[in-house]
């Protein structure tokens, strides 16, 4: 491989790592948006975009690519996120009431204190996600994957509150 190819690959990896680190920090400003051309629509590409407190109620975002995105405290009530890629994104305290997240890829997503009540989470992948304190009242979890997901304090669809040590399953 040529030197320029190795350098470009290294730069790309560095930018990806910076984006994922930025997605989880509480120390961020909207002016740090690294994707100003993001179009929040079905099939849209919004990697690394910062849309804190965005109002996306009822919006069709199916099959969108939104990894490392900042959607803290966003209003996503009744949004269609079918098949959307959200890995390493921050949805802390977001409202996803009645949202469709069927088959969504939510690997290592921050959903602390998020409202997922009555959401369709069937076949969604929550591998390594943080759902501590999330509200899943009435949510459809059929086939959802919670491997290594932090569930402490989450309100489960059947009314149970997961123990603080719950990981992968609500204990």
From TrEMBL:
SUPFAM superfamilies to which the protein is assigned, alphabetical: Pentapeptide repeat-like
Domain of life: Bacteria
Segment forming the signal sequence: 1-23
UniProt-listed InterPro entries: 5peptide_repeat, Pentapeptide-BTB/POZ_domain
A Pfam family: Pentapeptide
Assigned keywords, A-Z: Signal
Protein name stated in the entry: Pentapeptide repeat-containing protein
Species the sequence originates in: Cohaesibacter gelatinilyticus
């Amino acid at each position: 491989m040529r030197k320029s190819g190795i350098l470009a690959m290294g730069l790309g990896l560095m930018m990806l790592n910076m984006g994922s680190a930025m997605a989880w920090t509480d120390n961020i400003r909207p002016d740090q948006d690294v994707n100003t051309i993001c179009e929040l629509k079905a099939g849209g590409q919004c990697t690394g975009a910062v849309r804190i407190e965005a109002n996306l109620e009822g919006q069709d975002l199916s099959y969108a690519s939104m990894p490392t995105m900042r959607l803290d405290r966003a209003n996503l009530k009744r949004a269609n996120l079918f098949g959307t890629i959200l890995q390493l994104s921050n949805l802390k305290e977001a409202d996803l009431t009645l949202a469709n997240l069927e088959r969504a890829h939510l690997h290592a997503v921050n959903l602390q204190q998020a409202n997922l009540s009555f959401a369709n989470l069937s076949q969604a992948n929550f591998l390594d996600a943080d759902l501590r304190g999330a509200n899943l009242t009435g949510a459809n979890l059929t086939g959802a994957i919670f491997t290594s997901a932090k569930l402490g304090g989450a309100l489960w669809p059947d009314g149970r509150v997961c123990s603080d040590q719950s990981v992968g399953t609500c204990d």
